[in-house]
Amino acid sequence: MFKEEKVGEALLILFSLGFLLLLLSFFFTLFAHFSNIILVMENRGAGSALREGFRFLKSHFGSSAGLYILLVLIQLGIGFAFSIFQFPFSFIPILGTLIYLFLLPLQTLLSIYLTLFLTATLMVFYKDRTRGETVEFQL
Length: 139
What we know:
single chain; mainly alpha; 4 helices; 81% helix
């Protein structure tokens, strides 16, 4: 029916398109984070914040991407460790459910805290990188 060569080519194209989509979504996520930070920190309009976010990423892409990947890996690692901690309690019939119901809000609060930590770290990073430029920071 199909030759192995054709199937291999189709899979290569499919995985290449998937990887390209993954890279584009990573860039868009990073772009959205910094555009939101600029929108809040500099009190700009949406269009101006999008342009400034693109300009910022164009000039600081390597360090921005590296910091973002590090922070996301820390967040995923802590969430994974918490899930491993919760796993043994799933084997205890009634008590395990009660323990899980106690740990679920803690996991949610930890996730919220880590997301705030990621955002605050990116804000400090943006402020540090644009120190020479005029940036108004008001609370």
